[in-house]
Each structure stands twice: as C-alpha cells, then as structure tokens.
Amino acid sequence: xxxxxxxxxxTGASQGIGAAVVxxxxxxxxxxxxxxxxxxxxxxPDILTIAGDIGxxxxxxxxxxxxxxxxxxxxxxxxxxxxxxxxxxxxxxQEEFEAVTNVNLAGFYYITQLAIAEMExxxxxxxxxxxxxxxxxxxxxxxxVMAALTKGGLNAATRSLAIEYAKKGIRVNAVAPGxxxxxxHSPETHAALGTFHPLGRIGxxxxxxxxILYLESTTFVTGDILHVDGGQSAGR
Length: 236
Fold this sequence. Notes:
The chain is α/β, with parallel strands linked by helices. 39% of the residues lie in helices and 18% in strands. The protein has a single domain (7-177, 203-228), classed as Rossmann fold (3-Layer(aba) Sandwich), CATH 3.40.50. The N and C termini lie far apart (53 Å).
C-alpha cells in the first residue's frame, strides 16, 4: 500500500456540503475517509465510507483506525457534521439538547482528538470545522441559542487548538457559513432566508467548499474563523 497520497477525513459526508467536500478532495487526489449515519459504500477505492453516530467515541475510533489501516495516514480533518433545531430556547426538550450537543460538540471532540494524535506523528496536519456565522451576531427572528452554545464553542476551541499545536506543525481553522443552499432548506424558503444576508441571497455549497480548500492550501493561516455569509457577520 502506498502512503504517499494525502488523506482527508470528512464528517457529515453523505449529502450537501459534506458530499461536495469529499468530491473536492478527491479532485485534488486526496484519499478520503467519509462518515455519516447514513453513508453508503463507495465504488471509488480511494474513498473509505464508515457509517455511524459521530457523537459516539466508538465511531470516531473506527473512522481514524480504519482510515489509517487502509491509507496509512491522516492529513486533514473536516468537521462538517452538525445539526440545527430552530425553536425558542424555552421550548427545547432534553432530547433535542442531547441530540445537538452529541453531534455538534461530542462529534467534534472525539474525532478531532484522535485525528490530531495521528497528525502529531508526522508533525503536520490541518483541522477545519464548519461552524455558523450566526453565533457571532444574533439576528432577530432566528433561533440561535443552541447554535451559539455548540458552534460558538467550536470557534473558541479552534483558536485554542491552533495555539496549542502551532509549534507541532498542525493548523486549526473554521469556516462560519451563513444560510447555504442544501437539502436542509426547501426552495420556497430561499428568498426569505436570503434577506438575512447583506448580499441578498443565500450561499451555495461551492462557496463553503472553496473556503475549506482555501484554508487547506494557505499554510500560513491558523486559528482563523473564515466567515462565508454574504456579509452577515459584518452587520445589517
């Protein structure tokens, strides 16, 4: 088995942004370990798919250990998995709280810990997490407390990890999207959602993919939260 090709791990990889990220890294000739609850096997021998709950430490262990066994290394981790439940704060149930924190926080924590441990062996690597622009500037009419609690935490963790691992050759960044055209949003809502952005429209999956690839290629950037939000974070 050749271990000269770089290897990217992508969570939340079965559809939307995650599936597009997988294809983008394959286009760069990376091998890819792709995971989500519902992901199906791939015909591409350079894509290893692993189905499971990313908030379960056993899933994270399988993703990293099987990825290393198959491809020999881990160079990049894209923490894309995330869920959003939009409702008033006092109406959230315990089950919803646990579901959001399981994916958004535990799903980040377990796999990032294991991926960085592999990256340390080569003194090189990159972690990039998909967070949310709304955590930096709350908008009236958007229920964002759970996003702020979890995705905002990832922004803070991104900066902390960037400093902790800078001298070990590992970079850590995040992309903070606005509303993006994914299966999460039905077409009839796009016009209304676009009004939340100064540019007057929602973003496309390609906008987030391009931001992730930019951070992957720009080796002098670490600890950055790159907002891809149509100007939302700048003001309204």
